[in-house]
Amino acid sequence: MTNLLTSLLYEDWVLHALIWLPAAGLTHVLVSSADRARHIAFAWSALVFVLSLGLWWSFSPGDGGFALESSTPWIESWGVSYALGIDGISIFMVLLTTFTSAIAILGSFEYIKTRRKAFYALMLLLQMGVVGVFLATDIFLFYVFFELTLVPMYFIVGIWGGERRIYAAVKFFLYTAVGSLLMLVAILYIYFSSGVDSFAYEAFLNAELTLREQIWLFAAFALAFGIKVPVFPLHTWLPDAHVEAPTPGSVVLAAVLLKMGTYGFMRFLLPFFPGAVQHPTVVMVMLILGVAGIVYAAWVAAVQPDAKKLVAYTSVAHMGFVVIGIFALTLNGLQGGMVVMISHGISTGALFLLLGMMYERRHTRLIEDFGGIGRAAPLFATAFVITALASIGLPGTSGFVGEFLALLGTFETHPVTAIVAATGVVFAAYYMLPMVQRVLFNKLDKPENRTFPDLSRREMVILGPLVALMIWIGVHPAPFLERMEPSVQVVLERVEGARPVPGTAGTPARED
Amino acid sequence: MTEIVFVLFAVVAVGGAIGVVVGRSPVASLLSMIATLASVAGIYVLFEAHFLAAIQVLVYAGAIMVLFLFVIMLLNLGHDYRADVKYGLWYLLSLVVVGLTAGALLQGFMGTGATGVRGDGAAAAAAIDAVVAEKGVVGAIADPLFTDYVVAFELTGLLLLVAIVAAVVLAKPRT
Amino acid sequence: MVLDYTSSFHYVLALLPELVLSAWGMGVLLVGVSREQEGGGGQELGWLALAGLAIAAVANGWLYSGVTEEGATAMIAVDRFRLFANWVFIIGAALSIVISLPYVARQRLQAGEYYSLILFAAVGMMFMASARDLMVIFLGLELMSIGVYALAGFNRRDRRSAEAGLKYFLLGAFASAFLLFGIALIYGAAGSSNIHAIAVAVQDGTIATALMGPGVALLAIGFAFKVSAVPFHMWTPDVYEGAPTPVTAFMAASVKTAAFVAFLRVFLVGLDGLYAQWWSILWWIAAITMVAGNVVALVQSSVKRMLAYSSIAHGGYLLVALVAANDTAAAGLLFYLLVYTVMTVGVFGVVIAVGNQTEENSRIEDYAGFGWRQPVLGVLMTVFLLSLAGFPGTAGFIAKYHLLLGAAQSSLWVLSVILVLTTVVSYWYYLRVAWYMWMKEAPETAGAGGRITTPFATRVVLVVSVAVILLAGVFPGAALDLAAGSIDGLRDLVAGSGVAAGP
Amino acid sequence: MTGVGTAESAMTALAGVLSPSPSAPGSASGVAAQAAEQWEPLLPGLIVLLPLLGFVLNGILALWAAGHSSAAVRAGEEWNPFAGPSRPRTHTLPTLIGPGVMLLAFILALVNFAGMPADLHDPVIRTYWSWIATDTISVDAALQLDQLSMVMMLVVTGVGFLIHVFSVGYMKDDQGYPRYFAYLNLFVFFMLVLVLGSGYATMFVGWEGVGLCSYLLIGYWFSDRDKSDAGKKAFIVNRIGDVGFLLAMFLLFNNFGTLDFGPIFAGAEGQLAVGGTTVTAVTLLLMLGAAGKSAQVPLHVWLPDAMAGPTPVSALIHAATMVTAGVYMVARSSVLYALAPTSQAVVAGIGVLTALVAATIAMQQYDIKKVLAYSTVSQLGFMFLAAGVGAFTAAIFHLVTHAFFKALLFLGAGAVIHSMHHAAHHADGHLDEQDMRNMGGLGKFMPVTCVVMWIATLAIAGIWPFAGFFSKDEIIWYTAAWAGAGSNPFGTLYTVYWAVALATALMTAFYMTRLMVMTFHGANRTGAAGRSHIHEAPRVMTVPLIVLALLSVFGGWINVPDALQESFAGLFGVLPMSEWLHHWLEPVTHAAAQIQIAGFGEPAHAAPPGGGEVAWAMISTLAAAVTVAVAYRVVGTNKYVPAARDPGPAGVLRRAVYNKWYFDEVYDSLVVRPLLAASRWCWKVIDTVVIDGFVNLTGSFARLSGWTMSLFQTGQVNMYAFVLTLGVLCVLGAAVFLQ
Amino acid sequence: MLTQALLLSGALFVIGTLGVMVRRNAIIIFLCIELQLNAVNLAFVALSRYTGIEGQLFVFFVMTVAAAEAAVGLAIIISIFRHHETVNVDKFNFLKW
């Protein structure tokens, strides 16, 4: 495989292709007819996914640094370059993106009935933006992609969403924008502190910041990423966005967009501000927020009448595990966080697809409108149960590996946090099982549910790979863990190795 | 002597200005305005700006104010004796704001005199007087007008053209 | 070629674009008057005016291609700063004329006067950019203003237009008086109205400080009025709403640009040495402008009025560049103005299209479902709005980022934060238009409006504008270099001082 | 590598994993690893894999079958769980696959058992692939064979096989037949992972996996809301325990850097202080896990509800195997517990308390399965008591015998229910097929069932020479013996335990006899219509019952204590396998025993009130026998009426017992409802009002301030001039006064 | 003398400002603005005694501007009068908020 890839000069073009092929697909969709838009879009996203698969072989973890790097000057006067690269952290995010995008597009075939061209064009634009976020090694470029993802999502939610779609779309947009724009100011601060006219990742790493500065900048970055994740008190956009979004939107939102936040934590927050990250108060705050997210979101999820909202809240809970894993600042925690990210992308994505299928069939998302579906649609029920179990982290599924490592890593440094977080394991059952029961089990007492069709062949094709992945990662996560380990190690070493620079760099020049 | 004349003119000017603001009819305001313009012209004379004083009276008080009067008559506003000054709280508030603004200006201007302006007052005045003596009242102004400030001068020409065009366009009756 | 102004002919050369445009304006006027038509048609006059702008652009290009001046102290500056600004004016005027073409025809306005007034106003703007003398700035400003007063009230059949004209005129004249008073005081304090001389006097310390304080303040107020900075903005929404839409576009884009360019030259060149005295005033004005402009825009139901408030807010962002007062910020200001001109005129172009060349359909509800009815215009509008909002991928982002860069360079962190937070506020009302266009269904009664027809030329221009916005959003390098190059040497006027440079 | 090994490698490769590699069990193995090298276990991976294979095959069949039945549902037919067509693919194949894989697994287990050297000191570990591995932690997917896991494996596969066979008859008419076997096979797979896992992490996989299967099987008839509720309850309560398990693992990892049994147990004595905080915490947390899984007070509430599942499931999961996983885990961690005397006291205390509470409840239940369920809880309590007092062998011994007789009881009850079910079909009105008040006199109709159940009853009651006698007696004796140990700090406490245990044993005899009498003796209360349909179970069900009955009789003979060997209990020396199990498990429990003796001193040779082992064995069996006889008389003279006409128990105490000491109600009002209320409060108040309120308020505030500011925009020139001048004033003032 | 002249200029200026704020008649408002311009002219003349003849030149320009403004302004007033039959600026509040 590797030889084949090498012979194709795969490493030279793949990263660019991953970003720009969706753009080509977007154009293609726009010039095609509305009827064929979905097939074209799927073909392009499938192509991108197949191409991205090569990374699995082509990427070797090495020393944890970036691989397949390329950098072209973009805005030279500002030191901005079009710089891409991939490491053990981003490779999984990229694969997750290409994978779920293709799945989401396939899953939207029946769901999206109007304005298809626009929809698929936006989906491809979204994919392009997200892949860009994960591949960019230039902060400016990263920021551009980071923001770029908002627009397609805004329209996807706003146009194809449910009743309160506009409220949800705007809330999503504004919430996220607040954070990211403040981050932009922080980015500029580092840019001027680094003393190098460059937005390159390496240059930012070399910026000398005092502890005080680091904490402020940390706050700005953490706000931006924390909203995206979302971390506990900043999460209220998520349920609304999820509930209103059309299925494919929810899938991509849950599977990938949220990961941009935690990815940001790992990629930027930790390495840029090692001093702040090690500050006990900062760590405590982040851990408390993470734990609060786990418990609180689980509680709130448990009493949701709307299945989609329930799953949306579970995302908050899951991401809480990622947050504590990251801020435990241990290898296991970080790796666990990574695995939770992947796992959550797959299982929650699948859950949203399943809920979408339910909605397509019954045009309701209220749990109480279902019941006994397991009788009418056994395949559906099977897929649903497996996915739900993966979501609550049953051993043998992907969810367990991640949560186990994250909790283990947290326990190493912050036992109390881990103890409280571990109750999330119970609460996961507390919110998920009643939903499963009320949807799939109980008496099939509503006549309209009797004719609930079982999975179609297309739907099986969609869910099959997801379920397979859940189990694969749960049973044999080693290929994942070993690929990410060096890069995670690098992040950790950076945090542990650095001490804040003393001095008063960056005092205001003119505004004293 | 000059001071007394100045004060005299100043009092008339300010009185006229107040008259403009409180005048009951537009015509009354206009006449007060002319009084102000005339006394300001007098002050120009005190500052040895004889040509400007003349222009002030001829062009300003003469032509422009007549234009105003003409419009007032055109619109048949001459007999409008309804007081259109907004008295009451609004007036009070405006007075306060204006008074405070005046205070700020006063504070700014009090320090003038010796150090308020750049350059030596006596020397500059002497230089002006010399130029006036050499080129005449009109020539002293005309010379820089057509040399150093020729661009500005041409610009005023364009300005007037635009004003005419604009006035023609706007004042045309509706069709 | 180096101009030294010892020969009057060199003035002619230095003012070539202005002269061309003035003459052309007169020509358009004459052609228009000679044709004796009242309303209707007149498109060819528009094209004629565009040709004049093209020639002025050529002249400007010639100046840009390497003509310099001796000494850099004369009344008329021949520097790239001015020439860059001229480009912006020409683009602004040209785009405004293009979106005017069908409007003027449909509204049966007097085309000859209309287009010539635009050209004359553009000349006034150019003078504002080129003037190195406060008095010339004032005259240029009046030339521009008088033209725009007339344009604002141009539609005599529309009482809103007349009202806009009156308000603009009264308040504009009122503010001019403050500006003039400021000029007088500075003239007294510095002994000259030449910006270079003022800068030198400030540098020497020979300036008389007593009058300088109020002088600078009044000058700032005068400019602040023209850039519609809060609290001198009160006229803006009314005038923007009442004026014929293409004029609104022209006002929002070019008038503001001209005022900012002059503002920049006066404050960052002439009064740079007094930075310590004026920065805090501008700081507060900038902050209040950003906040008030954006916040009030939230509650507008008329798109035109909303855009008026949005333009106020943009003025606030631009003021940040003045507060930052460094080369980066200055270049950012120029770049922003260029981008802002294109997107503002563009957005008003779509507003005109939605209004079907009238002043109707300007309520936000009228945009419901518009995007799906007119996908091309809808997409264009969306891009314009995103660009106005400063969203990545559009030139608006690069421009706003440039301003932030300048602010950051001067460590204006609080102001930067205000800028970004108010930007978030602005997202709401820009997105609101987008959500009406794409996410709401058109009301059942919408059939009354009928098909919206937009002339081919307008469409082409709008598409090109969008292309430019996107291109500059993705590959801004050349434009940025151009803007940065336009600042080169601008603030080094005061030889050997070095105070002009930012931190 | 032998050919067998190659075959095994091929099998595991089939599963898509790395080939197995024998590895030394941790650092402390040393020279002793040689012994492991000499013994090559036969395809241990296959033993585990077979049930999984069964699950996959049955699962496919289940989906296929479900597709058909769901088509019927869509067509509008009412769901009838017992109307399944007996097609080859939905019936014959699962019948072959389900019990078939179990049989193969059992045979393999037996072969391994036979081949296992008695002197094997260190466990044999088979590593298949690296499961979770980072720089600091390495968890392998590995199986560990030693004496303890061997016993458990035999119980699981053996009893499991019998129950599978029984199920063939019991579930014959169920539409979800293949699904049932799929779940059952999956359960066995996870159970085997649990008992064979080479470390806590692997064990945890099985631990949660069996929980999952329990959930699925309890809610097997998921259309019934109560049944799926019960499944859910079981899962959630189990998960509470699992948190303890998880935390214990974390704590262990922090101290040992590994989760494998070998290194932890080898290093425990050196690294952890006796009675230290860490080891106490670890063991208590593990105990929490065990309590969840093994239904110990206060986490016992799920088990009685779990009776909602098919009865064979109750037999397999909720009697014989899964619920004993906690005991297995404590026994497995014997070294750690030995190091933590406090935890031991707690474990024993919880055990004895559970035994007592459950036994009392069992005395007042009418549902035949509920009685058995509480009986199970009670017996599990005995096992914990054993583990708590350090008699790990006794715990495992009781686990084994309990697996026999309790499985038998449940299956017997299953046969009764099966029969009653047919009767219920024909009865007038509603007839609860599990309510013993509706039974009575069934012995006439179901003689085989009656007999085997009496055997099991005698066994559980502790009557010599049945299996239960030996195991229970050993527990009680060890409690007494350790209570009297020289330096046991909890001596008095142990004495109390002993007394309570003794009393509980008698209660066991009582309620079991009550069950038997109410079910099989006296007059029949089923009603005439139903009565004629009561019949003996088919052979496929009775054969496993008979096998289990034999085991219940003789199963106890594998561990006759040395002290009793020569007494009546050992038939005066006739019984052959004196303390066989004890010796067999010695390699596993030896270390713990050493530590315990070091800490407590030698166990006493007399019970607290005096008297040796033989004497107390005599006393207990006689007392039990008397209790059985008395209960037979007392219960037999009671006049029971059918459930429909029974007003329920009278009197505060009886009612409290009947209502299970109100555990469920207390939990409901103290935990469930407050939690739900808190959740709702979080949602409605914190999320909606506070956070979203703040967010929306920000927006509203912005709009409000915008609106306020726009009020100045009156459209009047004077106003505008005024504001402008105000601005002038501010700027001018600032410029003039603030310079 | 300069100070006094500037003070007079300032006084006239603020009186003009007051007029703009309190008068309703558009023509009078405009007249007040003219008053302000005049005040500035006075300042220019006074300052020119100290700084040179340009000050007087500027007055010249200002007068031109005033004339141009007068032309345009009065035309606008006439124009709006045709709509409203009044020059009361309070009536011109169709555009607001």
Overall description:
- The complex is a heteropentamer of chains A (512), B (175), C (503), D (739) and E (97).
- Chain A is 74% helix and 3% strand.
- Chain A contains 23 helices and two strands.
- Chain B has three domains: 84 residues, Four Helix Bundle (Hemerythrin (Met), subunit A) (Up-down Bundle), CATH 1.20.120; 33 residues; 56 residues.
- Chain C has 503 residues and is mainly α.
- Chain C contains 20 helices and two strands.
- In chain C, helix 2 packs antiparallel against helix 5 and helix 14 packs antiparallel against helix 19.
- In chain D, strand 2 and strand 3 form a beta hairpin.
- The termini of chain D are far apart.
- Classes of the chains: A mainly alpha (512), B mainly alpha (175), C mainly alpha (503), D mainly alpha (739), E mainly alpha (97).
- Chains in contact: A-C, A-D, B-C, B-D, B-E, C-D, C-E, D-E.
- Chains B and C meet through helix 4 and helix 6 of B and helix 2, helix 5, helix 6, helix 7 and helix 9 of C.
What is shown here, in short?
The complex is a heteropentamer of chains A (512), B (175), C (503), D (739) and E (97). By secondary structure, chain A is mainly alpha-helical.
Estimated radius of gyration of chain B: 20 Å
CATH class category name of the largest domain in chain B: Mainly Alpha
Give the strand content of chain B: under 5%
Oligomer: heteropentamer
Give unreliable regions of chain B as ranges: none
Largest interface: chains, residues each = B-E, 91 and 68 residues
Query: Count of helices of chain C?
Result: 20
What's the CATH H-level homologous superfamily of the largest domain in chain B?
NADH-ubiquinone/plastoquinone oxidoreductase chain 6, subunit NuoJ
Approximate helicity band of chain C:
over 70%
Largest β-sheet summary of chain C:
2 strands, parallel
The beta-strand count of chain C equals 2
